[in-house]
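Thread: Newbie trying to understand structure tokens

Hi all, I'm a second-year student working on a class project, and my supervisor (Dr. K.) asked me to get a predicted structure for one chain before our next meeting. I've only ever worked with sequences, so writing a 3D structure as a token string is new to me. If someone could post the tokens and maybe explain what I'm looking at, I'd be very grateful. Here's the chain:
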Amino acid sequence: MTRIAILTGMMTSAIALGGAALAETEIRSVEVTADLDAIGNERAAQYWTDIADDLETAIVSRITDQIVETGGASISVDINELSLASAFQENFGIEDTTLVGQVSILNLQDQSEREFYELTVSYDQALNFFPTTDGAVVTVSMSDKEYYNGMIEAFAENIVAKLQ
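---
Reply by user tm_fold:
Sure, no problem. This is what the structure looks like when written as tokens:
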């Protein structure tokens, strides 16, 4: 009987600690940069001139309840590669549409808590964010706003998922 009480107490403590570990990260700032002149794919740079502002907005819109004025973490993203493949290139595996950036998450209170990683989002991941009709994905071309939005939304979603 005592053993069951001890195990129950330990499980309750573990659940409480696990709940704390799953708490959302507080965010103080989000900054996204993209040097479109340095991106080798001219076609992508022409289509995606507002990518830094749009990606920043997409991230912030997902974390509004986590934003704090003091403390918290700083998120910075540096978009360093854009590649737009034509439908022909995508279908035959010649080239993939990708959006690549360096992500940095830094705890402003404790500088030792930081995370750096490269995030690559492909066309396949963006499909989840394209409009659908009766469960089927609507065909979009790379010049469509939905295509652009899907890539931005997929990138933002991946960053926010790592904050949880």
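A couple of things are worth pointing out once you decode it. Confidence is low (pLDDT under 50) at residues 1-22. The first helix runs from residue 2 to 21. Feel free to ask follow-ups in this thread.
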